[in-house]
Amino acid sequence: YMCVTSVFTSCGQWLEDQTKKLHKDMKKSTEADLAMSKAAVKISGDLLNNPLCEQDQAFLESMTALDTAMKRMDTFNQEKVNQIQKTVIDPLKKYSGVFPSLNMAVKRREQALQDYKRLQSKVEKYEEKEKTGPVMVKLHQAREELRPVREDFEAKNKQLLDEMPKFYHSRIDYFQPSFEALIRAQVVYFTEMYKIFSELTDQIDQAGLTDEQRERETEAKLSELRALSIVADD
């Protein structure tokens, strides 16, 4: 019986800990997602407000396209986070809410077991004594006292033996729709991101240069700047 108690406790505690950890990690993930898109909007807005946009029409058009793209990204990101909140984070929180009742059921079984063992020990003590009249009376009383306590423990024990495995295995059926919804939300988001950034590339990447060509071009520009006397090394 004590071994069964340990299994009930460890199984429930492990599942509760994992559920809380997943809930916490999902919240941190969505908060980081929102912070990322908000920062991107802030950066594009700062670039759009750069005085250079007033002097260079091409730069203004590029920064306007970037700012529009970042705002669209932020909108889709917010929709994704809202969807994850409803389909993953909220269900995780609700699932965590069942553990206090589960833990209480385990504690009630443990208390019933202790009562049962105490009275069983009392019965055994009288059974070992000489069978005198007073002893037999006390033995009968102890057995009568034990009977409802044993029945109570056996009922609680059977309930946990029957329902704990069902509860444990039900987590798959409960969480599978949430994880499917998480995947769908990510697929929709990244599909839209591909469209947004493809359009942005078409708008601002007029030269069609490769990353390597752009890197060489940047280095060349930087070399020109370094050649100026005002930035030359002493």
TrEMBL record:
Record carries keyword Coiled coil: yes
Compartments, record wording: Cytoplasm, Cytoskeleton
Domain BAR per the UniProt entry, residue ranges: 1-213
Xref: Gene3D superfamilies: Arfaptin homology (AH) domain/BAR domain
One Pfam entry name: BAR
UniProt keyword list: Cell cycle, Cell division, Coiled coil, Cytoplasm, Cytoskeleton, Septation
GO function term, MF aspect, one: lipid binding
Domain of life, per lineage: Eukaryota
GO CC annotations on file: actin cytoskeleton; cytoplasm
Signal peptide (from-to): none
Coiled coil: 102-129
GO BP terms: actin cortical patch localization; cell division; developmental growth; endocytosis; plasma membrane tubulation
Function: Involved in cytokinesis and septation where it has a role in the localization of F-actin.
Protein name: Bridging integrator 3
Origin species: Lates calcarifer (Barramundi)
Lineage per the UniProt record: Eukaryota, Metazoa, Chordata, Craniata, Vertebrata
Encoding gene per record: BIN3
